[in-house]
TrEMBL record:
Its EC number is 3.4.11.2. It is an enzyme of class 3 (hydrolase). Keywords: Aminopeptidase, Hydrolase, Metal-binding, Metalloprotease, Protease, Zinc. InterPro entries: Aminopeptidase_N-like_N, Aminopeptidase_N-like_N_sf, PepN_Ig-like_sf, Peptidase_M1, Peptidase_M1_dom, Peptidase_M1_pepN, Peptidase_M1_pepN_C, Peptidase_M1_pepN_C_sf. This is Aminopeptidase N. Residues 558-881 form the Peptidase M1 alanyl aminopeptidase C-terminal domain. It catalyses: Release of an N-terminal amino acid, Xaa-|-Yaa- from a peptide, amide or arylamide. Xaa is preferably Ala, but may be most amino acids including Pro (slow action). When a terminal hydrophobic residue is followed by a prolyl residue, the two may be released as an intact Xaa-Pro dipeptide. Its cofactor is Zn(2+). Belongs to the peptidase M1 family. Residues 451-553 form the Peptidase M1 alanyl aminopeptidase Ig-like fold domain.
Length: 881
């Protein structure tokens, strides 16, 4: 890991391998500190490849203990081997041979959780992106597809369960207290999709009959005692399988589909063929331990990994630069699934919030990169919101431009043409062009140009001509990789709302391409003319968030209030309510900074109260409207010279004004929306809870008393309500007896539930104010905290650094120093996790000068170490550039 910090990989250097792998047979003899891996690889030289070219396999920290060619041990002069490469020369003339490799690894010492590792008694693997090379020497790259047969030998007692990809073909008791299982995966796959799990787990089982009538066994493996909590994941899986058949015609292809939940996992989950491995927080749920957000996340990620079976596994990436080919598309499929299972606009608003909170700052900061990057130092650092979520938005825009049928046709062609292949973004786009006749040449720039476009809008209504003119200009700010940006091909959905609140339909739209209500922007500046508009409309732009852009539109307050009160596109309606609130909050922060009294805005209070009370709207939407932009959102909107303390104070002042204006309504809602009857995780019930808890924040602020939240905590019969009440107590009434009682009760009640205690750690780590650092430091000594467990680290340290603006950015810089210390220790243990954690500081340049200098000092202190992992080196160097 600490080697080769200079090996930048470039897209332009792509070359296919000199040899083609036909099959690989692996034998794992599992031991806690010594596992031997035998690999037998049948291969031949690629036709046309240089006959003198050596075979070069990748490794990472491996110890070679045997090497043979066609059954004969290889003499040392025929090969070179170090921890990261195995090179074999003078290969047989005819180019066809079998290679046998033996390596020895220590799964218990693998704290990186990459490759084969053993934690909490379970052996499991994580191979994407380059973890397979930590198991054996191989062509560890996505364009090398092979048939895998895997034999696992292990102690029967500690590992009754032995799993790998594909179908179980043999089981044997070896008589000496050990047993073996052999798995065969008939589908060719790249090494990153290899998986192995061994240990003692329990499972729940179900089945699914596919659209062609095939029977598929479904199993979810979890820790003993947790089986009852796997039911929702199983239900989600079955719904996802059905949905993918109906929506995209995709059928599952093996006889068995397995999911294993493990407690030590770097990421969310992994789509290994037929054997998905999950972070257990994305599988386990019951009303007492999981929130509504957890349920929604589980449903989405179970579906996401399942959808990868076609978008990722059956068709994979030629190289890692194409990562968004599978991730962007699969996120889009996941988003569509969630929208169909839940409330479409509410799901969409959550996506917009996520994109703005995470992807926009990435695109606007030192780590900006295109959806398809052209170079990387460490690929693990490119599993980003740009590749995933912006990539998803790009597929969504293709669907918007082509229409649902055109999109489906293109995707059908993609599956037909590329099944079994390892392909590129160009291959993907070509399918849509060939299937529909659309030219996507200009559109493709979305994959290659980093940065968030800004669209400026000016509207002019001509009553005499009954025309509305809309002038739209686009610019994309420079990013570190590229100063000059070109205009993009942007589909922008636009609505014209008449004086009575209804949509106005133009008789024609001229000035550029358009498809129904979608304008196609292609130039720096364009003017679209809407004909036959009988009265001055309020213009609603970027309905449904049709493009991942920022809109600058100096609209009259009257128009905005019309949109906020009547827009039928609920995404645009929410966006307008949110923007009005953000404007007031930003102004308030400026007031605080300038030492002026804070000006609040009664019209905003009226709007929010009216929206909260509007029973024509679904509760989940009302909850979204009622949840004010957070301190981080305000900071991002301000963009430069950020003072977190001023923002905190300003936001509290505005909240108080709103809370007082709607005190009775909010108090009323906390009661009206209470759970009637048994808990159900469905979206409607979740929406009622969301509204109730959004109202609780404001009701408590109006009452200036922890009493209501304390009662809500006591009477909560589910984790959503309990956590919401505890957060109000901890954050709005920090230090009160009620807050401390609830926190202590929660800690005691869930002492044996690490995933629930993560919520407690996060709640405490995000208490505003400079004293939180001391608490976080103390919590690191809590017996439930484990520096080796990624979930714990993210819950405490991650939440503190990325979601506590006043605490982390203490004026004295102690937050940064603490964080830098943690980063330096953590990097030795788990580089993937540490590098990701480090990105919490990527926007430090936007802070006011004093904090900015203190933050830089700490980042520079980290960068000054010469033994950083490649992952961390890459991130800090780019941050400081
Ligand atoms: N492919 C996985 C997914 O479903 C994520 C794997 C992440 N691996 C990594 N090394 N960052 O999104
Ligand atoms: Zn994925």
């Amino acid at each position: 890991m600490r080697t080769d910090t200079n090996r930048t990989v470039y897209l332009k250097d792509y070359q296919p391998t000199d040899f083609i792998i036909e099959s690989i047979d692996l034998v794992f003899d599992l031991g806690e500190t010594l596992t031997t891996v035998g690999s037998e690889i049948r291969m031949h030289r690629r036709p046309g490849a240089d006959p003198a070219a050596p075979l070069v396999f990748a490794g990472d920290g491996l110890a070679l203990s045997g090497l043979a060619l066609d059954g004969k041990p290889l003499l040392p002069e025929r090969y070179d081997c170090d921890a990261s490469t195995l090179t074999i020369r003078d290969l047989p003339e005819d180019g066809s041979f079998t290679l046998t490799i033996k390596t020895r690894i220590n799964p218990s010492a693998n704290s990186e959780l990459l490759g084969l590792y053993r934690t909490s008694g379970i052996y499991s693997t994580q191979c994407e992106a380059e973890g397979f090379r930590r198991i054996t020497y191989f062509y560890d790259r996505p364009d090398v597809l092979a048939v895998y047969t895997v034999t696992i030998i292990a102690d029967k007692q500690s590992c009754p369960l032995l799993l790998s990809n594909g179908n179980l073909v043999e089981e044997q008791d070896l008589g000496d207290g050990r047993h073996m299982a052999k798995w065969h995966d008939p589908f060719k796959k790249p090494s990153y999709l290899f998986a192995l799990v061994a240990g003692d787990l329990t499972m729940i089982e179900d089945s699914f009959t596919t659209m062609s009538g095939r029977h598929v066994a479904l199993r979810i493996y979890v820790e003993h005692g947790k089986a009852a909590r796997a039911g929702y994941a199983m239900d989600s899986l079955k719904r996802a399988m059905k949905w993918d058949e109906e929506r995209f015609g995709r059928e599952y292809d093996l006889d068995i589909f397995m999911i294993v939940a493990v407690s030590d996992f770097n990421m969310g989950a992994m789509e290994n063929k037929g054997l998905n491995i999950f972070n257990d927080r994305l599988i386990l749920a019951d009303p007492e331990t999981a929130t509504d957000d957890d349920y929604a996340r589980i449903e989405a990620v179970v579906a996401h990994e399942y959808f990868h079976n076609w978008t990722g596994n059956r068709i994979t990436c030629r190289d890692w630069f194409q990562l968004s080919l599978k991730e962007g598309l699969t996120v889009y499929r996941e988003h569509e699934f969630s929208a169909d299972q839940r409330s479409r606009p509410v799901v969409r608003v959550d996506e917009v919030k996520f994109l703005r909170a995470h992807q926009f700052p990435e695109d606007g900061g030192p780590l900006a990169h295109p959806v398809r990057p052209t170079q990387y130092l460490e690929i693990d650092n490119f599993y980003t919101t740009t590749v995933y979520e912006k990539g998803s938005e790009v597929s969504r825009m293709i669907a918007t431009l082509l229409g649902p049928d055109g999109f489906r046709k293109g995707l059908d062609l993609f599956f037909e043409r590329h099944d079994g292949g390892a392909v590129t973004i160009e291959d993907y786009l070509k399918c849509f062009e060939d299937a529909t006749g659309h030219d996507l040449t200009h559109f493709a720039l979305w994959y290659h140009q980093a940065g968030t476009p800004v669209i400026s809008v000016a509207s002019f209504y001509d009553e005499r001509k009954q025309q509305l003119k809309l002038t739209l200009s686009q610019t994309t700010p420079p990013t570190p990789d590229e100063k000059i940006k070109k205009p993009l091909h942007i589909p922008l959905r636009v609505g014209l709302i008449g004086p009575n609140g209804a949509d106005m339909a133009p008789t024609a739209i001229t000035g550029g391409e358009s498809r129904k209500d979608v304008l196609e922007l292609t130039k720096d500046e364009q003017t679209f003319v809407f004909e036959g508009i009988g009265a001055r409309p309020a213009v609603s732009v970027n309905r449904d968030f049709s493009a991942p852009v920022k809109i600058r539109f100096d609209q009259s307050r009257e128009d905005r209030l019309r949109i906020a009160g009547a827009e039928r596109d609920l995404v645009a309606r929410w966006d307008t309510v949110n923007a009005l609130a953000l404007e007031v909050l930003v102004k308030a922060a400026e007031d605080v900074k300038a030492g002026r009294p804070v000006t609040t805005d009664p019209a905003l209070s009226d709007l929010l109260v009216a929206t909260a009370e509007d029973t024509a709207l679904e509760p989940a939407f009302r909850a979204l409207a009622l949840t004010l932009p957070g301190e981080l959102d305000i900071g991002r909107e301000i963009g430069a010279d950020i003072d977190p303390d001023a923002i905190h104070l300003a936001r509290n002042t505005v909240i108080e004004a709103i809370a007082e204006a709607g005190a009775d309504s909010f108090a009323q809602l906390t009661g009206d929306m209470a759970n009637g009857g048994a808990f159900s995780p469905d979206a409607q019930s979740a929406g009622r809870r969301a509204l109730r808890n959004a109202a609780l924040v404001l009701a408590a602020a109006a009452e200036k008393s922890p009493r209501r939240a304390s009662q809500a905590y006591e009477s909560a019969d589910n984790m959503t309500d309990m956590l919401a009440a505890m957060r109000v107590l901890a954050h709005q009434f920090a230090g009160s007896a009620e807050a401390e009682n609830a926190l202590a009760d929660f800690r005691r009640r869930f002492a044996g539930e690490p995933l629930v205690l993560d919520k407690w750690f996060s709640t405490l780590a995000t208490v505003p104010g400079e004293n939180t650092l001391e608490r976080v430091t103390k919590l690191m000594g809590d017996e439930a905290f484990d520096e080796g467990n990624p979930n714990r680290v993210r819950a405490l340290i991650g939440a503190f650094a990325s979601s506590n603006p006043t605490g982390f950015n203490r004026p004295d810089g102690a937050g940064y120093a603490f964080f830098a210390d943690f980063i330096l220790t953590s990097d030795k243990r788990n580089a993937t996790l540490t590098a990701r954690l480090m990105t919490a500081m990527r926007s430090f340049e936007a802070l006011e000068p004093s904090r900015r200098a203190l933050a830089r000092e700490q980042i520079e202190r980290i960068a000054a170490h010469d033994d950083l992992s490649r992952n961390l080196r890459d991130i800090v160097d780019r941050m400081l550039k």
